[in-house]
Amino acid sequence: MPFFTTKNQTKVHYAEDGNPTGQIIICLHGLGGSIETFSSLLPFLEGNYRVVRLDFEGLGKSPLTQQNKALSIARYVSDLGDLISHIQKDGRSMSPVVLVGHSLGSIVALHFAASEPNVVGGLILLGVVRSASHVQAVRERMLDMASKTREQGINFAADLAATTNFPSDSERQVNPTARDFIRRQVAGSDPEGYAKTCEAVADVGHKDPDYSRIVCKSLLIAGDKDMISPI
Questions:
Q1: DSSP string of 7-45?
Q2: What one-character-per-residue DSSP string does the chain give?
Q3: Cα separations (Å) of 83 from 32, 37, 100?
Q4: 50, 58 in Cβ contact below 8 A?
Q5: What is the residue-level pLDDT of the chain in tens, covering all 231 positions?
Q6: Which CATH number applies to 3-221?
Q7: Half-sphere exposure of 220 (CA within 13 A, CB side)
Q8: 43 CB contacts (<8 Å, ≥6 apart)?
Q9: pTM across the whole model
């Protein structure tokens, strides 16, 4: 799978599948995720669409550009724009792209759609979240996760994700395969990259985009037991 270096010098790991002339669908994963988050969707999309999956900087196989430099939502958005321009250079898929975003990916998708309304033709957002800069309890939780991941290692974050990403009540049986998938995804992350991503979400400079600039059709999906990012 290829890498692309953005204007920020981010080395973005990404994958392309499906119809090379189809409309582009770009899949944006959540905190601790990777391109593998969306692997199960490929059989349903690759016949008609050009499916692009990417790893955000510091997660999956996209390395941190600088260990001592903070990450930001604005940086993710900028890197996404550069990658889209790179992919469309071949002239095969020039129609507006569809962004599929989960959690962190939904934040990036919303910001990009607001900043580049002519580039985005649709949004499909799962577990939609917004800026946490004004919610002190959420900021403290994210910063605590960053601190403990640095202190205790990535397995701390993996075990936490495998617990908090599923309903705690007994009315639903959690598929062990799904829980193991979440744990493996997060455990495969760079611990410093994971911590920096938590800090990017909690940063006081991270504000909501101007939602009035988002003009494309949008589908927002939320789980009725989702306690992390309920609508």
A1: TT--EEEEEEEE-TTSPEEEEE--TT--GGGGGGGHHHH
A2: --EEE-TT--EEEEEEEE-TTSPEEEEE--TT--GGGGGGGHHHHTTTSEEEEEPPTTSTT---S-TTS---HHHHHHHHHHHHHHHHTTSS--SPEEEEEETHHHHHHHHHHHH-TTTEEEEEEES-----TT-HHHHHHHHHHHHHHHHH-HHHHHHHHHHHTS--STTSPPPHHHHHHHHHHHHTS-HHHHHHHHHHHH-TT-----GGG--SEEEEE--TT-SSS--
A3: 20, 19, 15
A4: no
A5: 799 999 999 999 999 999 999 999 999 999 999 999 999 999 999 999 999 999 999 999 999 998 889 999 999 999 999 999 999 988 777 789 999 999 999 999 999 999 999 999 999 999 998 887 778 888 999 999 999 999 999 999 999 998 888 877 645 677 788 889 999 999 999 999 999 999 999 999 899 999 999 999 999 998 887 767 655
A6: 3.40.50.1820
A7: 14
A8: none
A9: 0.94
Residue type present at position 95: S
Block residue for tokens 């593998």: 36
